Amino acid sequence: MCEQTDQCQRYNNLLKEGFVSGIKKGWSGFIWMLKIIIPVSFLTALLAWSCWLNKIDFFVKPVMTLLNLPAMAALPLIIGMFSNLYGAIAAMSVLTFTNEQMTLIAIFLLIAHNLIQEGIIQARSGMHPMKATLFRLVAAVITVTLVAQFFDATALTPVTSEAPTQVSQPFVYILKSWSFVIFYLCIKIFAIIMSILILLEIMKSLGWINHIVRLLTPVLKILGLRQNVGILWVTAAVFGLSYGGAVIVEEVKEGRLTKDELEDLHLSIGINHSLIEDPSLFLALGLSAFWLWIPRLIMAMIAVRLLNLWHLVRKKRQ
Question: What confidence tens digit (pLDDT) does each residue in 285-313 have?
């Protein structure tokens, strides 16, 4: 009886420890996000009000046309590719896009965001940063192009509100509109981030990660990955490349994985990582969960299998 009481007490302590840690990290992460979201979104609102974005249409329009997006979509895409998703979401929240356009932007950025920092992490754990970045960019372009075919073409055309008539609106009106949008967005992001980090910290505290790896073995097979990369894949899938980078680097130092296995892993997690937190951030914009999770999962599966086929062909030639 005493032993059962001790086990219950230990379980409760671990649960409490994870919960408290989740709250601390959630609050810290939320404050950090505010430092990015508020200034970036305000700057974006100013740029949209001034119509400066319309002046670079000639430069970005060909690329955006390839992605079935208006020229204004270049701003959140550039912010996301070179920094992180929070700044990109802040920009998206104050620009006028259709739901379908925001979905395509979100899919692109879920695959190809924070390319510099995450490229360095991938380089330290066994893959050339240029190759890792190129893989992600190509996968993002292909995925967005394919997904766009499922949307009504009229929903992907530029909306009239991005025309220069915006400059006629008083700045006070723009400021009030921005304040309302960003306040509502921050509330939703706070709820999402706190919930996710509390759950993740509880899982870590209770030691559930290894059990999850065993349960996900069939998923690894579907993705074309071997079981010995399971912990690394789950680390990236749950915590992302940035948060899980230290674990990935330390595991790779052990030298238990072949070059081909590392390439397969990096291609998969480069396209499809942070499966909980990153897509959930875009839910705050009212986007469909299906398009936020499924397309890049399918793309990761196809990409790894194509790479496996290339490995097989290369070995036969040797």
Answer: 889 999 999 999 999 999 999 988 888 88
pTM above 0.85, yes or no: no
C-alpha 239/C-alpha 243 separation (Å) is 5
Q: Evaluate whether 184 touches 97 at the Cβ level (below 8 Å).
A: no
**Cβ of 269: how many Cβ atoms within 10 Å?**
29
Rounded to whole angstroms, how far apart are CA atoms 265 and 4? 41
Domain enclosing residue 211, as ranges: 2-317
How many C-beta neighbours within 10 Å does residue 222 have?
12
Nearest to 152 by CA among 187, 103, 85: 103
- The 10 Å CB-count burial string (b at 16+, else e) for 180-191 is eebeebbeebbe
The number of domains in the chain is 1
